[in-house]
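wait is this the right file?? whatever heres the structure
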């Protein structure tokens, strides 16, 4: 049986460490990092995430600015808010919750965020800095959290075969770039990939980020592999409630892998912890202060 990677506990430790560093900044440098989260519309799942983000931001001793706009908000209005947040010296990080309503072009909004405040790491400048590997950009939170779990479990990743299933700009592509930076041999698979089960079986590290519940089966996994399940799928139950489930068939995979992240309690909590980490990093860089240890 695989060891189950406790992302919830790891994230709690990371948040506690961030909280101690924030307290030092407040005491020694006289400023408090601030994170602005913008939510357009009333998607219930998005509301839960935004609420969790705000609560954990406050717990870490940072300032949380929440902006809720109606679902019918026009693009120029949202753009104007982003520009105000860019210009606000109390705001160190800006996150515009995705997905956005259909009348808004997400690329236009993401490109308008000041790259120095882009704590999601979605701005093309930050994506480019990650790809070229020579900059100090901000790294997308979900892949960063997944990498922290991998480094904690496996130490040196050099030379390992990594297969990333999913090619989104939010998870798949930045995950592949991070693993490449760790000297893994990286393959990015997607919906058009042929012989996907065989390819997955070559992976020492398998990252599933496709958004299809239970798609990765136990016999797709190399015995002893490390499996990172990024999927957050809400499945309706017969009684009307919902259950969260990943992209990996956990019951099967846990009998084959050496290490595996559960859903919930795996990568999800790391995403928010890394958002706070990026906010702390952005605050120190913007204000010309060294990041405390
Ligand atoms: N601009 C932007 N940045 C994001 O980072 C972003 C976004 N938009 N839109 C939505 C997705 C989703 N997301 C999650 C964050 C935390 C959990 C999380 O904490 N999950 C818990 C369970 C939470 C629950 O019970 O619903 C877990 O997996 O254990 C999940 C998903 C961030 N997202
Ligand atoms: Mg994805």
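ok assuming it is, sequence goes like this
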């Amino acid at each position: 049986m695989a060891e189950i990677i406790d992302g919830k506990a790891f994230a709690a430790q990371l948040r506690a460490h961030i909280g101690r560093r924030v307290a030092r900044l407040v005491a020694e440098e006289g400023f408090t990092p601030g994170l602005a989260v913008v939510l357009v519309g009333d998607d219930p799942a998005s509301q839960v995430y935004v609420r969790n983000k705000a609560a954990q931001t406050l717990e870490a001793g940072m300032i949380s600015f929440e902006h809720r706009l109606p679902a019918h908000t026009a693009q120029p209005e949202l753009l104007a808010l982003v520009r105000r947040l860019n210009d606000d010296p109390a705001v160190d990080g800006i996150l515009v919750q995705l997905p956005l309503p259909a009348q808004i072009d997400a690329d236009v909004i993401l490109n308008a965020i000041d790259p120095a405040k882009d704590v999601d790491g979605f701005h093309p400048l930050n994506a480019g800095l990650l790809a070229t590997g020579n900059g100090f950009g901000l790294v997308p939170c979900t892949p960063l959290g997944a990498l922290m779990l991998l480094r904690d479990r496996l130490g040196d990743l050099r030379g390992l075969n990594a297969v990333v299933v999913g090619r989104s700009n939010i998870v798949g592509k930045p995950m592949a770039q991070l693993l490449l930076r760790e000297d893994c041999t990286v393959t990015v698979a997607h919906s058009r990939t042929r012989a996907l089960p065989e390819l997955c079986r070559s992976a020492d590290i398998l990252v599933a980020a496709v958004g299809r519940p239970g798609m990765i089966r136990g016999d797709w996994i190399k015995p002893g592999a490390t499996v990172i399940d990024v999927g957050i799928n809400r499945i309706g139950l017969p009684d009307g409630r919902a259950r969260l489930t990943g992209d990996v068939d956990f019951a099967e995979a846990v009998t084959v892998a050496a290490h595996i992240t559960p859903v919930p309690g795996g990568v999800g909590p790391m995403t928010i912890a890394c958002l706070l980490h990026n906010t702390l990093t952005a605050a120190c860089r913007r204000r010309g202060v060294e990041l405390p240890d």
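The CA atoms of residues 132 and 177 lie 9 Å apart. so i think its the right one actually
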